[in-house]
């Protein structure tokens, strides 16, 4: 058991600077390419308990043990995730390439962090989780303070985009009238449903908007006439819409380019409306036009 030390404990920043690289080397065999990531997480854990860890006889050994446990836990989690994905794929419940919709919410942040470079992840963790000043972050990264600040700003922008992603109000760039609907239905081979669709879809040159926010979705005209609503879940590039009726679900794939997007229909198990398959409406309302994000969620960051 690691005993309390008799000498004065080190401050956390000095301890981090001294032990980080050697800790990475010590867990390389267990953690592989994610060793730096694992060690960063272990030091965050140490920082949260620093008053207790600092007085141990060997705080470096404690951090190495924590890092190994994190690596083992990640391996187990990856194996379990792959098992669930395989089972779901066999049942046909999840599109190819998508992960389980039952993953914990924190995986959104984990996935966003994984999209950063190792240097950017280190800067974010050191500054926002470990609370090191920019000068110390620069020292750890081996760069100037201005370069460390640029690295943090770039990481923040990438995290904000990844975390916001599909969220916001997306408004169709095209306006529709009856002639437009008939023309579009002919292009998709669905013109036999034109009369019913025209009766069901609001017209008068309307544009429609898809709103995705806080787990709820709605499909409205720009005059706030509601076409559909319910809840949604997003995982691995696809969005699963569950109508408020609870009858079936829809999976769409947003293809986002900055403030513009197109929505691709992946699967649709909702029942027909007046004899018209639901995918006919979705091809018309979502797939046939580009959308622009007209409102977006803001991300508030602490000042550097």
Gross morphology: elongated
User: Which bin fits the share of residues in helices?
Assistant: 40-55%
Number of strands: 8
| Element string (H = helix, E = strand) | HHHHHHHHEHHEEEEEEHE
Count of domains: 2
Describe the structure.
The chain has eleven helices and eight strands. Strands 1-2-3-4-5-6-7-8 form an eight-stranded antiparallel barrel. It is an alpha+beta fold. Helix 5 (107-114) packs across helix 8 (145-164) and helix 7 (134-141) packs across helix 8 (145-164). The chain folds into two domains: 12-164, no CATH class; 168-295, Lipocalin.
Strand-helix topology:
Layout: H1 12-31, H2 35-48, H3 50-53, H4 59-91, H5 107-114, H6 118-129, H7 134-141, H8 145-164, E1 168-172, H9 178-187, H10 194-200, E2 208-213, E3 216-221, E4 226-235, E5 238-243, E6 250-257, E7 260-268, H11 278-287, E8 291-295
Antiparallel strand pairs: 1-2, 1-8, 2-3, 3-4, 4-5, 5-6, 6-7, 7-8
Helix pairs in contact: 1-2, 1-4, 2-4, 2-6, 5-8, 6-7, 6-8, 7-8
Which properties best describe this structure?
Lipocalin, alpha+beta, 8 strands, 11 helices, 2 domains, eight-stranded antiparallel beta barrel, disordered N terminus, about 300 residues
Structure summarized in a few sentences:
With 304 residues, this protein is an alpha+beta fold. The chain is built from eleven helices and eight strands. Helix content is 48%, strand content 18%.
């Amino acid at each position: 058991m690691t005993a309390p030390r008799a000498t004065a404990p080190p401050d956390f920043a000095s301890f981090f600077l001294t032990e980080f690289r050697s800790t990475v080397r010590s867990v390389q065999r267990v953690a592989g390419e994610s060793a730096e990531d694992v060690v960063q997480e272990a030091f965050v854990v140490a920082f949260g308990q620093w008053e207790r860890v600092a007085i141990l006889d060997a705080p470096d050994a404690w951090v190495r043990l924590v890092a190994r446990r994190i690596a083992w836990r990640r391996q187990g989690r990856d194996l379990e995730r792959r098992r669930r994905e395989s089972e779901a794929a066999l049942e046909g419940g999840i599109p190819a390439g998508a992960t389980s919709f039952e993953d914990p919410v924190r995986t959104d942040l984990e996935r966003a962090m994984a999209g950063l470079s190792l240097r950017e992840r280190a800067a974010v963790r050191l500054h926002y989780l470990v609370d090191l000043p920019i000068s110390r972050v620069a020292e750890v990264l081996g760069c100037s303070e201005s370069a460390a600040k640029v690295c943090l700003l770039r990481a923040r922008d990438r995290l904000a985009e990844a975390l916001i992603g599909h969220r916001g109000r997306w408004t169709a760039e095209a306006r529709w009238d009856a002639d437009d609907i008939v023309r579009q239905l002919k292009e998709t081979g669905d013109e036999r449903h034109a009369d019913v669709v025209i009766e069901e879809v609001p017209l008068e040159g309307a544009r429609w908007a898809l709103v995705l926010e806080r787990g709820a979705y709605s499909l409205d005209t720009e005059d706030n006439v509601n076409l559909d609503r319910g809840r949604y879940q997003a995982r691995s590039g696809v969005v699963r819409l569950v109508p408020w009726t609870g009858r079936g679900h829809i999976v769409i794939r947003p293809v986002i380019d900055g403030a513009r997007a197109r929505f691709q229909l992946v699967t649709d198990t909702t029942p027909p409306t007046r004899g018209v398959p639901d995918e006919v409406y979705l091809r018309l309302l979502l797939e046939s036009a580009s959308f622009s994000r007209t409102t977006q969620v803001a991300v508030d960051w602490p000042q550097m």
